[in-house]
Design a protein that fits this description.
With 462 residues, this protein is an alpha+beta fold. The protein has helices at 3-15, 19-24, 26-43, 89-101, 127-131, 148-156, 173-187, 191-200, 244-255, 262-269, 324-335, 347-357, 359-372, 382-394, 398-411, 416-428, 432-445, 450-460, and strands at residues 49-55, 58-65, 82-83, 208-210, 240-242, 283-285, 290-297, 300-307, 312-318, 345-346, 377-378. Pfam families: Beta-lactamase.
Length: 462
Amino acid sequence: MNKYIILILSLFFLGFINAQEQETQPFIKYHETIDSLMQISYERGIFNGNVLVTRNDSLVYQKSFGYTDDTGQTELTKNSIFNIGSISKEFNAVSIVMLIEKGELKFDDKLSQFGLGLPSWSEKVTIKHLLNYVSGIPQIDYDNVKNEKDILKDLQSLPNLLFEPGTKYNYNNNSIFLQRRIIENVSKKTYQEFVTENIINPLKMNNVAFDPNLDYPNKTRCFDVDKISCDEISSSKDRLWISINDLNKWITALHNNKLISRASLELLLRNQYFKNKESSLGVYQDKFALHLHGGQSWQYEAAFMSELKNDLNIILMSNNKSKGFEIIQSMHKIMNGKSFNLPKKSIYRQIRNKCLENIDLGIQYYYDLKKDNLNIYDFANPKELNGLGYDLLAEKKIINSIKIFKLAVSEFPDNAKLYDSLAEVYYTNKQYELALLNYKKSLELNPQNTNAEEMINKISKK
């Protein structure tokens, strides 16, 4: 019997062990089960990165799987630093609250107070609106901006908001950009200086860097499904790379009120305007018992699940995103003595090359695999086809991208996000009537889809 089969049998056995037995030797049992889960995830090609689990400040599990870049020459270590995507936005939200708790800011302060040269609409937008993504400010116009000067200039020329502040939810990076400019205006320091002096140094975070060069010590490079490195080009700065141990320090300090008060933490954890919408710190469940947040940037992926009451942190970082969120959910079930699912292979990764070579043969390959391999490949996750569609779009294969998104909506006819994606690629291909049709379908399925609403108005004016 080969090693792979032994791992699977071991994992099934350990995944269903009695919860009472786990209490006898908890860390040993958890360690063995999580390790088997991670070994299979790595061998199936759906995880390359670092994992850390702690409980009550004690180490339950920590391990590195795979390599620092696409060359496969240097193995990851616990000191490797990764881009953590949207999780880094927690740092600016907490920085703002630190200034509020010092009496230097107020949640109701208007955006117009901070000398950014913005139009009159800035008199209606408050810090509270920015923190909860309800400002009415649109997403950064990535097609036309090259740097942060362009971002500010674009905002300064914005004639109107998308909607009245506080009436709708619209997650966007312009809100993040503006939060950081407010911090700089009030503190009289750069954003990086403020975070370093007030968070990084006090918490003794040793492997952290903003916008590191490619040769920065311990920096990872992200790579795609074909092991091709990412360009890592961005129009915005202050992107944070951090080691898994230092992210654990951040989460622990935040939850133990080392940075802001418990009342402020609970305020940031929930969206103040819309229940079930993401807040500045991600999402929470069970009356602040469980804190979850994930981030993606290029091919980087990071996620954590943290139980505040039980002081449990489960953290995952990857430089080759694939199944990170599913893996972390399985780890959380393991830590709670519950049954869990083995992560399946990515159907996106499996059919990608065929779709690049011949889209029709690639789609036929999808159906062939679905007929006989439902237990091996992930056909139930709409993000698989959505990701492949955008991948093909990035490769300038727009017709192929349209065919994949059409496959996606046929497989998931009630998914508003997929119709929005199909509409986007039709719009990119200047097929405006089909774009309009699909944006309307997306808005019908999800009336809160402000992007679809905005695009419908834009197309209608053509």
